[in-house]
Design goal:
single chain; alpha+beta; Phosphatase 2c, domain 1; 7-stranded antiparallel β-sheet; 5-stranded antiparallel β-sheet; 8 helices; globular; Stp1/IreP family PP2C-type Ser/Thr phosphatase; PPM-type-like_dom_sf; PP2C; PPM-type_phosphatase-like_dom
Length: 288
């Protein structure tokens, strides 16, 4: 089997309307090991609170993930490594949530801040995606585009219950209302999925400043068209800005290259860290 090759690229842009960029993005690809990650956080809260929250989340995940490839990890079996990778994401999300809550308590002017989060980590051919809120992850390969996340949002709940179609959701008055975020509750309700990658693919992580303007079909067109593939992030930013750029826009891509010719296979069922409770808080991202 050909060796796995990974490459990353990411960009965040203030957009055409906002006075501050409240998105944060972190990207990394190891020079010595088949390990890469992208983290995208979309903050909310205004008065620099959103930017602070997203930076806390992105920095915390970056710090935790950068420590992962130590001697202990490298000496473990593949199955143990997969468990350690998932555990690292769970721990990092919990730490980030705590840091944001602590900052809000010590700085009342940031009492409304919080952030969405989506992170994808690849080790060898194992992919883990964690998300909370409406920042998304997609996988594209020769079989097309596959959403890897489902929004924690009011409109997604309405779609699931049959109250709205996906087309109606695009223009809904509550399309920016999310039901989960970091920094709003004592426990972070992130969802974690994992897959085994069996063929070359591109992973896109993005904030809703991109998906506000580009539907899944248009995202697939960009990812299938432009090469080098990592330059798709620039096309995504430009497309969203040309269509209005009302929000900050962030896009990160991981390029996974593997000669094996098979479909992407699920290696596990979705896991929610904390069951959804009745009366969950709804966060209006338009507060930003």
């Amino acid at each position: 089997m050909e060796p796995i090759r990974l490459a990353v690229n990411g960009r965040t842009d203030i957009g055409q309307v906002r006075e501050e960029n409240e998105d944060s993005i972190r990207c990394h690809s190891s020079e010595n090991h088949p390990f890469a990650y992208v983290v995208v956080a979309d903050g909310m809260g205004g008065y620099s609170g959103g930017a602070m929250a997203s930076n806390i989340a992105a920095d915390t995940l970056q710090d935790q993930l950068d420590k992962l490839l130590n001697a202990t990890f490298l000496s473990c079996s593949p199955q143990q490594q997969q468990l350690m990778l998932r555990a690292a994401l769970v721990d990092a999300i919990g730490v980030a949530n705590r840091k944001i809550l602590d900052k809000k308590q010590s700085h009342p002017q940031f009492s409304h801040m919080g952030t969405t989060l989506v992170s994808a980590v690849i080790w060898q051919d194992f992919l883990v995606v964690a998300h909370i809120g409406d920042s998304r992850a997609y996988l594209w390969n020769n079989y097309g585009l596959q959403p890897l996340t489902k929004d924690h949002s009011v409109v997604q709940q309405m779609i699931d219950s049959g109250q709205l179609t996906r087309e109606q959701a695009q223009s809904s008055q509550v399309r920016n209302h999310i039901t989960r975020a970091l920094g709003v509750a004592e426990k972070a309700e992130a969802t974690i999925n994992s897959w085994t990658l069996k063929e070359s693919a591109l992973l896109l992580l993005c904030s809703d400043g991109l998906t506000e303007y580009l539907c899944d079909h248009e995202i697939q067109r960009v990812m299938a068209t432009y090469r080098p593939a990592l330059e798709c992030v620039y096309h995504f930013i430009d497309d969203a800005n040309q269509r209005g750029g009302r929000d900050n826009i962030s896009a990160g891509i991981i390029e996974f290259c593997n000669r094996a010719d098979a479909v992407v296979e699920f290696s596990g069922n979705p896991v929610t860290l904390k069951p959804k409770q009745k009366g969950d808080i709804t966060i209006r991202k338009t507060q930003r």
